[in-house]
Design goal:
heterodimer, A: about 270 residues, mainly alpha, 13 helices, about 0% strand, B: about 110 residues, alpha+beta, Alpha-Beta Plaits, four-stranded antiparallel sheet
Chain lengths: ~270, ~110
């Protein structure tokens, strides 16, 4: 049968140039140069296209994701709106990925987790964004009729997402309040893992490596009952600290948060 | 971690892909004109392969305005030109950062 040859996409020269900078020129030694070139671009014309390219972290080498994060941080001095948009966009990608839970884009979703972690490493976002994302992954869609589609019992992809994010930036949560926040999260994470039941061996090995790296002395609970009682204890402790604080100071501007039960509606959480 | 009651930046999601920024602003300004400091619109896309909803980020002047905005727009149904309904979602933006307006012009 006759068929016309596949028409290759013709991109405008400006887009071609951006792609050349980001997808072929960029490496450790050229990053300063690439940053300068990006600053020289006609931003009004190409900001949207740049954002699109920054989201394609999965197209390049996995080991290069941090360079895009570094560029984002570097550009924030001059194009803060862009640097803010990159963060909002990657968070949206992560969220959308969970809403669709499409097998075909898993690699891309993993790259976005890595990207988010690198944005933290380059001090472009603070730890609250990381922890919000971690808890969102644990609870998104749970307790809704769609739970079996969004997070089927045998689906361990969310565990992979969390491993990737914590492998990227978890080692920075080693002191102060962010250390406590990670300690706390890891117990909730353990419950999530235990509820999954049997975990494929490769993921279990990655988990063992992760715990060995981040919290070599942490207890790995072996049953749901054990982890639940640990959580009850934790939550009671948090409540008592909270009331203590509230009693000792009027404006208790604490970092202790309510249970990570994420209510999507702002109106209800305000009540 | 910002106290939830201090948060002012929201994201309005699941908007029709074809919704335009002026059309959305018109709807928002009907009730919230002058009550936000920053607005950022991400148009959606409706190709054969993918549907991508439009989205908007809004930074309000006061946390209380967020509550009122959510009461109005969370679950608000937008209808596109073909009559399809889109139920919007309002949430706090996971990243509360907004651009600093004073960011200087790049002298390169």
């Amino acid at each position: 049968p006759e068929r016309s040859a596949r028409v290759s996409k013709v991109r405008p020269p400006l887009h071609q140039y951006i792609r050349k900078l980001l997808f072929s020129d960029l490496d450790k030694s050229s990053i300063e140069h690439v940053l300068r070139q990006l600053r020289k671009l006609p931003w009004d014309e190409c900001e949207d296209y740049l954002l699109k390219c920054f989201m394609k972290v999965h197209k390049g080498k996995y080991s290069q994701v941090h360079l895009i994060a570094s560029l984002t941080a570097g550009l924030s001095r001059y194009h803060d709106e862009f640097a803010v948009a990159v963060v909002d966009e990657v968070l949206e990608e992560i969220r959308l990925g969970m809403e669709m839970n499409d097998y075909g884009i898993q690699q891309r979703r993993i790259a976005h987790m890595r990207f988010l972690g690198e944005l933290y490493n380059y001090e472009h976002i603070d730890s609250s964004v990381i922890f919000e994302t971690l808890y969102l992954i644990l609870v998104f869609g749970h307790g809704t009729p769609e739970q079996d589609v969004l997070d089927p019992p045998e689906d361990c992809f969310r565990i992979r997402m969390i491993i990737t994010l914590l492998q990227t930036c978890g080692h920075y949560f080693d002191r102060g309040s962010s250390k406590r926040k990670l300690d706390r999260f890891l117990i909730y994470f353990q419950r999530y893992i235990l509820i999954k039941g049997s975990i494929p061996l490769d993921i279990e090995f990655d988990l063992q490596d992760l715990f060995a790296d981040l919290r070599p002395n942490m207890i790995r609970y072996s049953s749901i009952e054990d982890v639940n009682s640990a959580l009850v204890e934790l939550e009671e402790h948090e409540r008592s600290v909270l009331t203590e604080k509230a009693n000792s100071e009027k404006h208790s501007d604490t970092e202790i948060r309510k249970l990570p039960v994420r209510t999507n509606s702002i109106a209800t959480s305000a009540n | 971690m910002k106290d939830p009651s201090d948060r002012t930046k929201v994201v309005l999601r699941h908007l029709p892909a074809a919704l335009s920024q002026p059309a959305l602003i018109e709807q928002i300004d009907g009730h919230f004109a002058g009550r936000y400091k920053w607005f950022y619109f991400r148009p959606g896309k409706n190709s054969q392969k993918h549907l991508r909803h439009s989205r908007a980020y809004i930074d309000f002047k006061r946390p209380e305005d967020v509550i009122e905005f959510a009461e109005f727009f969370d679950g608000h149904v937008f209808v596109n030109e073909k009559g399809t309904q889109f139920k919007a979602i309002v949430e706090y933006a996971p990243s509360q950062r907004v651009p600093k307006f004073w960011s200087k012009k790049d002298g390169r």
